[in-house]
Each structure stands twice: as structure tokens, then as C-alpha cells.
Specification:
Layout (H helix, E strand, L loop, with lengths): L2 H21 L4 H8 L3 H10 L4 H11 L3 H10 L3 H12 L7
Helix pairs in contact: 1-5
């Protein structure tokens, strides 16, 4: 996965995070507790519409099995299968951390 694609996905999720959070019935504090991203960092993400790749992966890992989140990811154009494939391929590369 290219850096450009990662940037696209992080912007898509950051720009729609409040909607996703509410669809899943979560406050910033609730999402913070689940992801390990501080509530203040989530506030910054939601206001600036930008997040890091690791923040993106944290949110995705926590919410990916919730039906409302899956629908949201599809609606905004985030291909979770592509992300999973990238991560699976990366884990198998020589020199990747275990």
C-alpha cells in the first residue's frame, strides 16, 4: 500500500470520525478507552480532520467488527480488506517485527 493511499484513508476516517463514533454509540471518552488514543487527541483529530496511520489502525482494529462501522467504512471509501491484506503481507516480509 502506498503512502498516498494511507494518507487518503487516514483523511477519510478523520473527516468522518464524529459520525462513525456516534453511529457506534460512543463518546470521545468511550472511543479513547477502547483505542488507547487520548480523548484530547481524538478531539484534535475531529477538529483538524487528520490522524496518523497508527491512530487509523487503532480505530479500525477496535471498530471493524461492528456492523455500523463496517457500513461507515464502505460508505466513505475505506477498503478494510485492502488494509488487512497490506498488514498480512507486511507481517510476512523478511525483517518485519513479530
Amino acid at each position: 500500500m502506498t503512502q498516498k493511499r494511507k494518507d487518503e484513508y487516514t483523511k477519510l476516517l478523520a473527516g468522518s470520525l464524529p459520525v462513525l463514533r456516534k453511529a457506534c454509540g460512543l463518546s470521545q471518552t468511550g472511543l479513547s478507552e477502547l483505542t488507547g488514543i487520548s480523548r484530547s487527541a481524538l478531539s484534535v483529530i475531529e477538529n483538524r480532520k487528520d490522524m496518523t496511520w497508527s491512530q487509523f489502525l487503532s480505530v479500525l482494529a477496535v471498530l471493524d467488527r461492528r456492523p455500523e462501522a463496517v457500513r461507515h467504512f464502505e460508505a466513505v471509501g475505506i477498503d478494510t480488506d485492502e488494509v488487512a491484506g497490506f498488514l498480512s503481507g507486511y507481517a510476512g516480509r523478511e525483517g518485519a517485527r513479530e
